[in-house]
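Subject: mismatched residue count in predicted assembly?

I count 1252 residues in my input, but I want to confirm that the predicted structure covers every chain. Input:
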Amino acid sequence: MLIWRNMLGGLVLWAAHFFAVYGIASVLPGTQAAVVLVLLVTGLALAAASWLFAKAYAARTASDDLQRWSVRLALLGYALAGTAIIYQGLPAALT
Amino acid sequence: MTSETGFDPKLFDRFPTPDPRPQSEVDELERIWAAPRGWRMLTIVNNNYVGLWYVATAFLFFLLAGILALAIRAQLSLPLLGILPQETYNQFFTMHGTVMMFLFAVPIMEAIGVMLLPQLLAARDLPFPRLSAYAFWAYFIGGLCFFASIFVGLAPNGGWFMYPPLTSTTYSPGINADFWLLGIGFIEISAIAGAIEILVGILKTRAPGMTLVRMPLFAWAMLVFAGMILIAFPAVILATLLLELERALNWPFFDAARGGDPMLWQHLFWFFGHPEVYIIFLPAAGLVSMMVASLAKTELVGYQLIVLALLATGFISFGVWAHHMFTTGMPTLSVGFFSAASMAVSMPAGIQVFSWIATLSIGKPTFNTPTLFVIGGLVTFVIGGLTGVMVAMVPFDWQAHDTHFIVAHLHYVLIGGAVFPVFAAFYYWFGMTSRRPLSERLGKWVFWLMFAGMHITFLPMHLTGLMGMPRRVYTYLPGLNWEWTNLLSTAGAFILGGGVLLFLIDLARNFRFTVEDDAGNTYGGGTLEWLPTGLYSTRSIPVVRSRSPLWDNPGLCKEVEEGRHFLPYSATGLRETLITSPIRAEPQYLQIMMGPSVWPLLGAVFTAGFFLLLTVQAYVPAVACLPLATFSILRWLWDTDRPVPQKQVDVGSGIMLPTYVTGPSAHGWWATICVLVVAGMIFAMAVFGYLFVYGIHPTYWTVPTERWWAYPIAAAYAVAAALVVLGRRLLVRAGSTNWSPTVAILLACAVIAGGLATDWFSWRAQAIDPELTAQGAFSHAMLALQGQLVAVVVLMGGYLAARTARGLVTRPCNTTFDVVSLFLLYTAAQGAATALLLRFFPAGG
Amino acid sequence: MFEGWPPPMLDPAGPYAGVITTLSWILFAMAGAVLLIVLAAIYVALFAKRELQAKLGGKTAVLVGGVALPAVVLTALLIYGLSLTRHLSDPISGNELRVRVTGEMWWWRVAYLDGQGREVIQDANELHIPAGRPVVLELQSADVIHSFWVPRLSGKLDMIPGRRNLMRIQADAPGVFGGQCAEFCGGPHALMGFTVIAHEPAQFARLMRARLTRERTSPAATAAGARLFDTAGCSACHRVAGTDANGLAGPDLTYVGTRRMLGAGILPNNRGTMMGWIGNSQALKPNNRMPPYTALSAAQLTELATYLEAQK
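Triage response: the counts match. Full output below for your records.
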């Protein structure tokens, strides 16, 4: 189970952020509230990505090759997801 | 090293076994896996044949759609030409796009998967051979009949993306649009079946020891591919269903005058449509990753980065769909998210490109034909990716959208990212299936003609778009300076066609199908598909200890042929393969596989018949096909799930595995979960549509009055779910009677049917007319979706009862029982959700 | 340079197109630079010395070329692009000149609005605007999805049934600007063109005043022409202000004499093309909604053409 979480964790987080902000912008189009909520959700998602990154980093000297490989994949995944989440926060930040 | 299943990895050290095995085992394998001859070849289910037919059919559609393209380019070479009259042109460009995307691009990837994956994983076949045969025949028959519409002037003419209101009955009164909706909708079912097969095959039938880390990148790519299909295709299936309901029954999903919205179609279509192009690209990228390593004669640089890139592309591509809708007037904030995700999704592609360049760099490639196609594809794809980044920028897209700039972009990414890799793969893997390899000399001509032709066609087309020429125009006026770029593009198209023609000539001269004495490992690959094979795949299934087993152990071919690995014989006298665990590929059980059968073919014929006869409005014959299709499918299923007398067998070197396993580690369970994911996505898309049209035109919605009905209906579904759980418990319990578990299931089916009936009649009493408002249309559509599931549930109940009557429901656990139970649980959940949604949204009142 | 350069997308005539052209050049430069880098990398990978190849083959090269470099470029572009999108989507304030353009199969209904949003001047297929000021277009559709696009003035915006999309265009100087429908709408979508004519502000004001007056008066036209217009059936679909001809299904013909083009931007407007269009528009624009009038004699066609030429 841990290996699946490592492989997909960052990307699932990205997906959750994306659909959350898209939902907010769709339900409250053109409002200031939407902008604020999006920034909030983006902050939360980035915090989650950082926390999960740190947790994975701590586990990087795991027991066997496959575990270690999946931890490295997790780190890369959280980093990529974090970048994409920042990108997705920019439309609100630049409003 | 930890274990996933409790299997002791030290057992792998027993292989290769010290002594070669007797020849009689090989003879037995050959007998068991022998292909029928003559007419009975139509009953073949073995992936060696089905995969080849699949690839050939997909390639045929490539050629047919390519001919349409040549006609299109001829018509556009000069202004106001009359080579193709307006209506014919509109049908030609619609069919070119539709056939290329639905009948070539995705199927060729599935087809290569069907042909290559079992060999790559050293499995004897895909896990559901009859399902792949059914999927192939459905695609073959459906696709050819669909294409035939062009010969009778009835081909769809609303663009491959079929936007309403243009494609509603008002503006498309003929059956052209129905050909698309019913024909393509049906073929998508075939694609989903293939995806389930591939996903379960990759996760459950790998050679022992082939952990995820040692898995070839094509398998990784196909895993993401299959997962994406399960999530993306339901959107287009639902959209297709809704538009067909609107056309046939006048239910206004997309009609703004009655509370619907044309934009709903666009959201649903592109939620499918954008992942679709990555569904096409990722398998090609997986092929390139493998070929680059062999052709450069070195290990691939950046395996882990490429795995990340594949996974990331798979996910992020689901967040970019509305970049096809930047010009529709969406709110600025939403538009920004799609622009951001579209930029993000190009990063994984860049990772793959630089990994390939790095591999070429440290390796020593020679400029043979596959290498040329790989490098040519790389350059082309990068150019397409760069124009893609350009159009991800919203203001630029506001100018470039729907112009020939986009036509240029999409052909650069698809030809560079899919067609050239597929041609490289043809040359590279040709030796696996043909007695003679393709000609290297002609191959270089093929490449250079196709490469030059492609760039001469599409490079000037960027300028054509910048000059203001829109897409999908059957002609243009003189004096706009569009002449010379169009003429150039036409010339290039015919050069490209010339290259393909040359390829066909070489194919005819050199392709001689074989399974045994193939031309061999022409380009020196290191993965398992190059092991010596027969129709039974490899004689024994090797223990895998690295990513390139043939390079790291040059003696492996001989070891495998001598039977010194797993399963050098048939343990039960039937077709078998090993089921292994998804992460570490630890052997779990022996799967008994099905052999040739006519029922998948007949099932495909009657399913196709149903959809195609509906299209031409021959309603009585169409309805007659339904029971015939159902019977064929059930008859095929009837032969499955037959446990053998031996509970455990020796799969090699004394290692004992069970022959019958149920529950979450069984391949049948996994396939069912995949089907339920698809059903769930269809439902999720329907809920999205329901909420979307409400949000756009809330004034067309009335608050239901008799909301309390939701409670007894939901309660009924809960009772049904409880009965399913009870049934399963009874099956396990030693003291229960033979029939009690099945009776519990039958009761659950009855309660589910009752729940739907109650939902239907109480909703009809609300008198929200499905023809008058989008609310009416949607609520009835969701009940119809539930109705489809309930019909299947009832059939399943009957099937289970029949099996119980024949004593075929084994105890304490049984695959058929599990599959039925899972399906019933899902149906109950969806039914309850539907009842609650319809009555409690909109709230208020 | 050569004929056809610069192409309309890179030859802006107003600020809303101008900023997009600037963006376009930056994007082309970026793409060109990245392509050169990739081609250079491929060259090195295939032909350069082993030491250089070894460097390119390491994980660092992959991370720099595949991750770091793209991230920098993409981030910069994204910030630029999002800001520009924001700027171009500034809310419409409300006191700009407004024109309602409705997409029809396969022509454009144009209606100039007054300060209260009432339609005061009807026209078709051509739009007159004052130079140097933004004009707000209200884009909608009467049937299927169309898209309004005049590349030298602005990006495109779709016309979607059931919705109204607002777009600003502005021409900096007087001139004539062509456009075309950019969303496949079936049939002769390829022949659905549009023209925007920008005038000096004073001249524009005179034109609008003249038209407002015209809308309220009867035309000075040959009575015979007007009668034939009615008896031949033209008035069933077409309107000429101040006469009994009040058909709304087809383009308004009150100002057809002033139009530069006929058939929605596809034919020059002269006596010959006018007669040809009336006599058999199907030959010129197959499957358009106007039936052929092949029964009309040459004399009748001349009479109608003369009548319509005078509608200004």
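Chain A is about 85% helix and 0% strand. Marking this ticket as 'not a bug'.
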